[in-house]
Amino acid sequence: MDQIDATNFDDLRVAWRWQSADGSLDLDTIRETVPNIQFRMFQATPLMVDGVLYLSTALHQVAAVDAATGETLWVHDPKAYLGGRPTHFYNSRGVAYWSDDRPGISDTRIFFGTNEGYLIALDADTGAPVLDFGDNGRVDLMEGLPRAVRGTGANRRNPFGVASPPIVAHDVVVTPNVISDGTTTKEAIPGWLKGVDARTGDTKWMFRTVPQADDFGAETWLNESWRYSGNTNVWSMLSVDDELGYIYLPIGTPTGDYYGGSRPGDNLFAESLVALDIETGQRMWHFQAVHHGVWDYDFPAAPTLIDISPNGRPIKAVAQVSKQGFTYVFDRATGDTVWPIEERPVATGTDMEGEALSPTQPFPTKPPPFEYQGVTVDDLVNFTPEIRAMAVDAVKNFQLGPLFSPPTLSYDGGLQGTIQRPHVGGGAGWAGAAADPETGLLYVPSVNRFSVIKYYTPDPAEGGNLNYTMRGLAAGIQPRMPQELPLLKPPYTRTTAIDLNEGDHAWMQPNGDGNRIRNHPMLRDLDLPPLGGDGRIGLVLTKTLLISALSAGGTDDGPRLIARDKASGQIIGSVDLPAPAIGSPMTYMHDGAQYIALTVGGETPELVALRLP
């Protein structure tokens, strides 16, 4: 039973602080081999099992920590950082725990992936590698993948790695993977997923996220572009229904995130939710949310499993939040939509040579979007007439339009490109959503941002064979407001409560007052509502509270943990944090006391545990 409620949340105090094991490494020496190494993205959410917290660090060390005292019980360092730079960032969001349930067997393991593309099994009691798993404790996740070749040289960048935790069910381990999406070629490693035997490390099945030859869906990759296209990987977290034995894959964007001229067609299973039988890898059902994606609208978060009763009809549902700001809701056994999802016409006109966009995209009829979509002049900030005029002037050389507006090339003069909202990083992020099994409410943190993509044609002499690839999101090609004023109306971050029984919003609250913005010289005398802007960190849900971190702070408010009344969204408690939050919080009971633990920043980031006195 939850001990923390509205009457005592403010009494939470820091019980202990654990510094990331990365801080004890000799980084100066390591940088002689691997320049630019860093360990600040300590995003892991720990697991608590039998009084021990298990977690991974940004540099893929794994630690066991006493849940009551913060004492280090063991640390395992696979030295993955010596194997080259990661394909994206140095980060690891967590580990998986498994125990053998056969009678008379005592075998508990920690599974985690590394930026080199290995799955590693450790003895949960000692931290030692499980030598009879795979090759002396590790499995090569790149083995069997087309075009999967590790680079050479001290400063090489790994083309394939792991950042999110594996998931284990029915004695099968499945590990997400990260693949470089900044390619200048149409060829890339496909993000196929392996089902690995938790005892032996043997591969039980492989699901081809880019279908091959006679596979279901290969016909959606025209001109046989399935032969060379890649990515289409699950980089975020996975979910499993133990009773059904189904695993749910939130699959990402195909090669050429922002240009699809080399992969004509709808490109199944890119940007799709796919349900597999976890023991066999057999596809049970799928839904594609973006056809022929060029907006980087991959699914960013774990699917949420929740039992709901729309119109009094019980449904075991799966709800998938998206970068677009949509929530797609399905019967998780059959894949049937809970509410209709309509194929609606979208614009296809683009000046990108060779590009052929899909004439329709899927739009859920319920629930409504939890984030703003697209940009019109009416969406520009209007705190004062003068500021609105500044915003109109800032976008005069940019194309405005609805969600799924076609990308346009950026020129040095004239049109500077298409404003895309939500931003390529999405409305929802990897922290996903929290679900209330008692009320059927889904709580989603999100951010209101935009992006403009600038393109270039890679040099064929250097191996480039795409017509276009992304140059970046540099500030110089974004519409800019004078004096760092915001371009769009608030809120800039929010939490939305979605009633999945009704298919409608229950409430929306900005995340923070936005003091950094409201204290601007041109705004400080205005009577502005809460503006948001204080983070999109994950949520913890209790019987009565919705707990999250507000970390952007401002002149009055520093990093803090807040509690909202989960029924109304009103803030009813606040506790200071020693530094801004990095990872999503979690809660656990131990020796009769309830704790909240989360990772925070600093010169050396930390895991911090708070508890009631």
Summarize the topology.
Blueprint: E1 13-19, H1 27-33, E2 47-49, E3 52-56, E4 62-66, E5 72-76, E6 96-99, E7 108-113, E8 118-123, E9 138-140, E10 160-161, E11 167-169, E12 172-174, E13 178-179, E14 193-197, E15 203-207, E16 239-241, E17 246-250, E18 272-277, E19 283-288, E20 304-308, E21 315-321, E22 327-331, E23 341-345, E24 360-364, H2 385-394, E25 434-435, E26 441-447, E27 454-456, E28 469-472, E29 493-499, E30 504-510, H3 515-518, E31 540-541, E32 545-550, E33 560-565, E34 571-576, E35 586-590, E36 593-600, E37 606-611
Antiparallel strand pairs: 1-37, 2-3, 3-4, 4-5, 6-7, 7-8, 8-9, 10-13, 11-12, 12-14, 14-15, 16-17, 17-18, 18-19, 20-21, 21-22, 23-24, 25-26, 26-29, 27-28, 29-30, 31-32, 32-33, 33-34, 35-36, 36-37
Q: What can be said about this structure in brief?
A:
Helix content is 3%, strand content 29%.
Task: Enumerate how many helices there are, as a single number.
Answer: 3
Distance between the termini: 17 Å
Please identify the structural class as seen in this structure.
Answer: mainly beta
Beta-strand content estimate? 25-35%
Largest sheet: 4 strands, antiparallel
User: Which outline best applies?
Assistant: globular
Low-confidence stretches: none
The overall average pLDDT, rounded, is 94
List how many beta strands DSSP finds.
Answer: 37
Q: Going across the major beta sheet, what is the strand order?
A: 1-37-36-35
Helicity range of the residues?
Answer: under 10%
* Rg computed from alpha carbons, rounded to a whole number of angstroms: 24 Å
